[in-house]
Amino acid sequence: MRIIVIGAGHLGYIVSDFLVNEGYDVVVVDSDGEKLEAIRNDLDVLTIQADGTSPSFMRSRDVAGSDLLVAVTAMDEVNIIACILAKKNGIPHTIARIRDPKFLSEPVDYIKENFDIDLVLSPELITAREISRLVMTPSAINVEDFAGGKVRLLETKISPRSPMAHRALKDITLPPSVLIALILRDHHMIIPHGSDRILPLDNVYFLGNPDSLTKISAHSNAKYQKRTQNALIIGAGRTGQALAPMLEKQGISVKVIDNNEDHCQEMAGKLKKGMVLLGDGTDIDLLTQEGVSEADTVICTTKDERLNLMMALLSKHLGAGQTIVRVTRTEYISIMQQVGIDIVLSTRLLAAAEVLGFVRSGNVVSVSLLEGARAEALEIVIPESSRAAGVPLMKAGIPRSCLVGAYVRDGKASIPDGRSVLAAGDNVILIVETDHVQDVISYFKGRD
Questions:
Q1: Are the C-beta atoms of 193 and 226 separated by less than 8 Å?
Q2: What is the dihedral of CA 75, 76, 82, 87, to 10 degrees?
Q3: Where are the alpha helices (DSSP H) in 274-391?
Q4: Percent of the chain whose pLDDT exceeds 90
Q5: Torsion over CA: 196, 199, 204, 209 (sign)
Q6: Does residue 69 contact residue 82 with C-beta atoms inside 8 Å?
Q7: How many C-beta atoms surround the C-beta of residue 30 within 10 A?
Q8: How far apart are CA 400 and CA 118, in angstroms?
């Protein structure tokens, strides 16, 4: 499969990187030669310096016969035009990064029919939705839902005072609807077995029924994060403007700080009860005066990730509860977590997961990238041809780099054991090391 990526910025780079690792033939197009050189030096891609909206370029030999165009420049109009031209020139599928609310407010069908876009990619909106889910799930570092919400993957940090600490998995009693799917310890991933122990400060991924997971998170962390009632958002850009109304609809009291007057006015028009303040999020006096110590959650969403880090640390020092920071660069995630930030989300990584899910499609329903993309949670539909169908899991020869975490059949979610038998049509949630994803997908897809 040949994929054209229009735009060699940060998002174009990370999307191209993932696609190359999946084994696709990737062509990166940008009018900026320096950006292309940076990508060419790091990735095994063909780069072309050209205008991605040029009709002559779209008719060129390098584009002809391509299967997908991903337009991720910083300009919505450029991405839209590129997708329209791509469809006109025979490229069957298109993805466009779109950030302007005037486009995002339109129904998905309208965008697809009028702009020839199959998947709208809005990193800021994706990030806002992810933050909203995390805020509504106390003690969670990461939350992913599958099978229409019937199965949830929840990451939490184990407190030294947790009753689970220092115990082997086989000695921990979990509800029948819950499974420990992954352990992260000192930046090493462990797909667990019964003899493995949970240690203090491990990040543990629990998979199972959402209601049961609520109880599990309370037991795993002695510093149980109470449900957020008051949230302070620092940054009223696109992410903040999408997030604040979501939290307000959940009954959370929202306060927003931004140093841009236009952003503040736009935000004020989107809130019913929330307060919007024009000011500097690094101003200790302002933070103290506005009651940062009473905030259950402080969320830093500005474009400057280093500024977000500073503001989150200041808020924590002044007595705030949970801190959430938005970043673009994935390399900052582990560093920020090490210095005390509770949750770090990369807009680029969340967007890349959306692209991967679309590209794989077929029997792959959704993709969630875990631990800086070192592991993935996949939801797949078992086809008739799958080698995993009709055989007990203990005899199915499933790759060791994969954990079958849950399956949904006839609307009912179940946690499997070695005797469980998967059937064609089951929705199955897998935890897989990223380097082995293609082998695992091929195994479950089975014979053509």
A1: no
A2: 170
A3: 284-289, 305-317, 332-338, 347-360
A4: 59
A5: positive
A6: yes
A7: 22
A8: 35
